[in-house]
Design a protein that fits this description.
Number of helices: 11
Order of helices and strands: HHHEEHEHHEHEEHEHEHEEEH
Radius of gyration: 23 Å
Mean pLDDT: 85
Shape: globular
Helix content: 40-55%
Distance between the termini: 44 Å
Length: about 290
């Protein structure tokens, strides 16, 4: 299979119709159908369930579609990066980041860095830590800003800032100016899935497990649900900056957890110049390795 076939295949998968995909690709239907048939012969199975008006992906088609998107995205990123260098700009920084950083600390870092390197173009991908790790492995991002804990022996991680965890809630749920684990175990909690076990340990040590109202993967979700009174969100301190409601509190949790922010990238793979310069910029800001982190 080649890039052209993958591009044709992805267009048909997204349009749900050979006719619509042909219009999108500025092709007639017969050569498009022939390319799809050739691709199916090569993989040895059907990629589409063909209906009278609409076609859908088979299980094999869904697998190939995921790989096709990744390959086509990497191709386009490579072309964009080469074009930026050819045009004499500062190049392209393809950066992944978790949602709890995108509107807070990372926005400050990027503003400062781009003030120094005005020619750099940013491509930012926001996802949870595990999705970003997969993007690093596919080389669709150069560098990712994520939170520990995670296991990835093929990646090199550089500790940056350590953040205390805070309790975000409506004032009527958390009227006091502190948030002990003993107090939190009596309230409905909203926690990150990756930190669920660690939070349970803290609650158990304080006298018993609390009530987990919601377990989620995104700081924006946790804070948004807390704003609506669903419970108390246990999130990193910078995520409290995502609050929009006026009657909200975000006290630190004494003897709490420390969320470790790291910059990570594949081992034994040279970083493109903009990514290396951004990493160097971050390491100058955080020369000391934080201790006692998650």
């Amino acid at each position: 299979m080649d890039l052209k076939q993958l591009r044709y295949f992805a267009a048909v998968a997204e349009e749900g119709s050979i006719t619509a995909a042909a219009r999108r690709l500025y092709l007639s239907q017969p050569p498009l159908s022939m390319q799809l048939q050739a691709l199916e012969r090569e993989v040895g199975c059907s990629l589409f369930e063909r209906g009278r008006r609409h076609i859908t992906l088979t299980d094999a088609g869904r697998v190939l579609y995921g790989y096709a998107c990744s390959i086509l995205e990497t191709q386009q990123s490579a072309l964009d990066e080469i074009a930026a260098l050819r045009e004499g700009s500062g190049g392209v920084l393809r950066l992944g980041m978790v949602s709890s950083l995108s509107g807070t600390l990372a926005a400050d870092w990027l503003a400062e860095f781009c003030g120094e390197r005005k020619g750099v173009r940013l491509e930012i991908y926001e996802a949870n830590t595990y999705e970003l790790i997969q993007r690093l492995r596919r080389r669709s991002v150069h560098l990712a800003l994520v939170r520990q804990p995670f296991q990835a022996e093929d990646l090199l991680s550089h500790p940056l800032a350590g953040e205390a965890m805070v309790a975000v809630a409506r004032r009527e749920l958390l009227p006091r100016e502190d948030a002990s684990w003993a107090q939190l175990r009596t309230l409905p909690l909203i926690v990150y899935r990756r930190w669920e076990a660690l939070v349970r340990q803290k609650l158990d040590a304080a006298g018993g497990a609390g009530a987990f109202r919601c377990v989620c993967d995104d700081a924006r979700t946790a804070v948004s649900l807390a704003e609506r009174g669903l419970g108390v969100a246990v999130v990193p301190a910078s995520a409290a900056g995502l609050m929009r409601g006026g009657d909200m509190v975000s006290p630190a949790i004494p003897e709490g957890l420390l969320s470790q922010i790291v910059a990570t990238h594949p081992k034994n793979t040279p970083l493109p110049r903009p990514a290396q310069e951004f990493l160097d910029f971050l390491l100058r800001k955080y020369p000391e390795k934080p201790q006692n982190s998650l």
